[in-house]
Structure formats: structure tokens, C-alpha cells
Amino acid sequence: MFLDHAAGSPLRPDVAAAMVEVLADGTPNPSGAHRYARAAAGHLESAREAVADLLGVSPREIVFTSGGTEACALAMTAGAPDAPIAHSTIEHVAVAEPARRRGGRDTIELPVEPTGVVDLDAALDLIPDGAVVAVMAANNETGAIQPIEELRGRLHEAGRSVTLVCDAIAAAPTEALDVLVSIADVLTIAGHKLGGPAGAGIVVVRGGARLTPLLVGGGQEAERRAGTQNVAAAVGLAAALDLATSERMGGEVARLRARRDALARSITDRLATASLTSAQAPRLAGHLHLTVAGARSEELLFALDQRDLAASAGAACASGAPQASHVLLAMGMDHDQARGALRLTLSTGTSDDEAARAADQVIEVVDALAR
Questions:
Q1: Which of 20, 254, 258, 317 is an active site residue?
Q2: In this predicted model, what pLDDT tens digit does every residue of 64-78 receive, in sequence order?
Q3: Ordered DSSP codes for 259-323
């Protein structure tokens, strides 16, 4: 049973079919003058146009990358070369690490409240005019949705012009991305969170925002990202984004949220040691993050895996590390509590029966470990 969709959702059959069609169509390189290259370029630009249409932007504002990490690193090159960088303390390392490595710039950390939401009053005190501000749309671990629109509005009221970078990778499967795109200057998406292919990402670059290429050489992606594009991956990402948008519009996300809430109640009502993280914050529909007093994440995950339940403690790139999450510590959680984290993430394809069985498995594992 798979409840680790926030780490990467299995490839959707319709997405795989769209990719196979492209792979069977000939050359993978769209940069050429012959008919085969033109066919590949046609697939690539059709994918770009489809993504742009779904997000309400121009195709020229879409940059395809090799995945979410590259997309975030490229996004963090936005803004003036000497601009200070402000980012929340709960950003994914794919954003925080590029921010740290930008030599010569002041780096400002924006604190979060115990709910896991950025402290807007503190942010207004800390963010200077002209800064590059990176705040994710929603946290990948807790699912807490961040007040991006309110932050932008308050900065505008304060007379501060900033370049707002928004990591929307965790939010993309369930949130209205066209709304986020209208707020941010630069926004990132990764295919594998949507049931699309791994190794596919997007940077949405609005208006006059400029990026400094990380990969140089050819002039691909309007000279913003050199290298032969992965045409099949781009087509797969576009197909996955289309399916996710259709599900949201069709009410599937609302049903997912109700299923997640039922799973949360089933666990917390029966397990006194389990506490719901970011309970007072708006959260992504498929995210259920808990801490279990007296337990250790690595023990919980191993025991659940033995029962064929795939879960995680937090970010997939750090799940195997026996250390407390920087996100939970930033929220003010003590180290011992943070070490008992458990993240169950559902997709629109998760059934009520699977959610009910997952609750039983968690209860049984915690009880067994407590003996």
C-alpha cells in the first residue's frame, strides 16, 4: 500500500501512454533542421503550450528542466546580482542551499509560527526593498499552506518591490497553480509529484524576471537552460499537470481532503500518543503529518514497510537520515518529539479502504513498538 505520494507519485497510465507515443516517434533531439528533429520540436512546443495554457501564462515563460532540484536552483538565480535573499526557515534544501551558496549576498531567514506558517509580521520587519524572497506555496513535510498572496500584498503596501520565488512542487498536485503563478515572479513544479515522470521540471518565469543559466552551451530554452531537452518527459509532465487540474476541477481534491481527515481522526482518536502537525493551519489535501510520542521515525517506517505500507518521515531526500527535521525544529518542536515524525500522503487514487487499513496498520505498529 503506497502512502508516500509527496515523495513521488507512481507514473499515471495515461502519462506513460503519452510518453511512449513520443518515444516511438523518432529522434529525441528537437534541435535540428530535418523532419525528425522538427517532429520532436513539435512535441516539445505542444507540451510547452499545454502547460502555459493550464497556468495562464505565455509559452515563452515556461522553462523545462531536468527536475525539481534544478528548477529550484535555477529559480534562485532570479533578481539583481547583489540583491539580498530572504527565505523561510522551512524551505526545501533545493531552495535553501542555492540561497546559501550565493556568495556576496546577505541571506535572511524568515521564521515560522508554531503552526508551520510563515510569520508575516516578522517577515515584513526583515525583508528589505529589492530582495529576492523565497517562500514555498506549501510545505512538503507538514503540508502547511503558506500565505503567499497576503505576503505579496503586505510587501506591496509597505512599498517594497521584491522578486518572489515560489516553490510550488508540493502544492502542484492539489492547488490552483494559475492563482499562484499570478502572485509569484518565478515558480517551480516537478513532474514526479503529479504522477508524471521523474527527471522533469518547470520554471515559470513571469514578466521581466531574469534568470542566470546554470547550464551553458547551447541556446535551448531561450538561452535560460542549455542542453538537449527531454521531449518525452516534457510531454509527460504536461499530461500529468492536465490530469491533476481536471481532478481538482472535478471535485476529486475535495474528496481526497475528506478521506485524509477521516484517516487523521481514525489514528488520533485511537492513539493517545499521536499528535497532528500543523493542525491549526490550512494544509494540502493529501498530507497527514503526525508525531508519535516515545517513537522513532526510523522504527515506525521499518515496521510499516514490513507490513507493506510505504510512508515517510519527511522530505524524501532526508527520510533515511536518523535526525530531526529542520522544518519541525523551525516550528519550535523539541528534538525528541520531532524524531517521532510520520508522514502519510495520499493521492486522489487512494481508496477509503486503503486509508482505513493504513490507520489500523499504524495503530498496530505503534502498539507493538511500545511493548
A1: 317
A2: 999 999 999 999 999
A3: HHHHHHHHHHTT-TTEEETTTTS-B-TTEEEEEETT--HHHHHHHHHHTT-B-BSS-GGGTTS-S
| Cα 107 to Cα 91: distance, rounded to the nearest angstrom | 13
Q: Is the dihedral of CA 276, 277, 283, 285 positive or negative?
A: negative
Establish whether 166 is a catalytic residue.
no
Domains parsed from the chain with CATH numbers: 13-248 (3.40.640.10), 252-370 (3.90.1150.10)
Rounded Cα distance between 294 and 340, Å, is: 7
DSSP string over 123-179? HHHHPPTT-EEE--SB-TTT-BBP-HHHHHHHHHHTT---EEEEE-TTTTTTS-HHH
Q: What is the pTM of this model?
A: 0.95
Amino acid code (one letter) for 336 = D
Give just the sign of the alpha carbon dihedral 327, 330, 334, 335. Answer: positive
- Give the three-state DSSP class for 63: strand
